[in-house]
Amino acid sequence: MSGSADVESELAKDPRFIEHAKYIIEMIEKALTLLGPDIELLTEMLLALGAKLLVSYGVMPEYYTGMGRALIHALQEQLGSHFTEEIRDAWVDVYGIVAYDMIRAQQTMKQ
Q1: Tens of pLDDT along 5-63?
Q2: Which residues contact 98 (CB under 8 A, 6 or more apart)?
């Protein structure tokens, strides 16, 4: 097992990480409901969330890659054969958009 796989395996067992992952999934669900009607509101919410995660919880921009991988892995585990390449690609795209705004907020704060 590689070093990164060891870290991801340990994270998957950490109750704080699991709670954070649930929170991210809830945020993605909220984001999806806002995609069509009010994209500006969604962007504002994600920027605020990114700032809050950095200030309140110490979530750094470099954490988002591992969280994205963990999210995709969890979805794959839960959906099994229903987790098609199309579904995977859609989740990767959505997570990428969500993470982009949150990271952008954090990078702006560091300047």
Answers
A1: 665 667 667 777 777 777 777 777 776 776 666 778 888 888 998 999 889 888 899 99
A2: 24, 27, 28, 31, 46
pLDDT digits (tens, 9 = 90+) for 71-111: 898 888 888 999 999 999 999 998 998 899 999 999 888 76
Q: Per the structure block, which two tokens stand in for 106?
A: 């954090």
Domain ranges of the chain: 3-110
Q: What is the DSSP track for 5-62?
A: HHHHHHHHH-HHHHHHHHHHHHHHHHHHHHTTT-HHHHHHHHHHHHHHHHHHH---TT
If one looks up domain 3-110 in CATH, what number appears? 1.10.490.10
